[in-house]
Amino acid sequence: MNRTATLFLAALASAIFALAMASAASICDNAPCENAINVSNGENFTIELQSNSGSTGYEWWTNFDTEYLNLVSSYNQAGEAKPGWVGVPGKKVFIFNSKKPGSTEVIMLLVRPWEESTVAERKIYPVNIS
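Above: the chain sequence. Below: its structure as tokens.
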């Protein structure tokens, strides 16, 4: 990935995160959100998203508050394909660990890293940690 794409994505993620943190209300008050994830403090949870980065170039990027969450790991899971099939969608799996009780969000962006200012899809997951 080139330096410009990396800087763009970092700036975009920071802007979205700043917007989420600047408001006392949830970011979901102004944008559609996925179902809330409810976990206990110290518990792991998984977000799985359909992905086809090998043939489309789109990749899922995540932004979250490190005060509340750790990204334990992320990996691509291949889809089921018959011999000779190409471009079969799979999944991108993100495993998070909750660090502290409270409410936060995980923001997922589907982007092509080399295309500046293009977000193909955005998903926001509210996370409640008890």
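Residues 78 and 90 are 5 Å apart (CA to CA).
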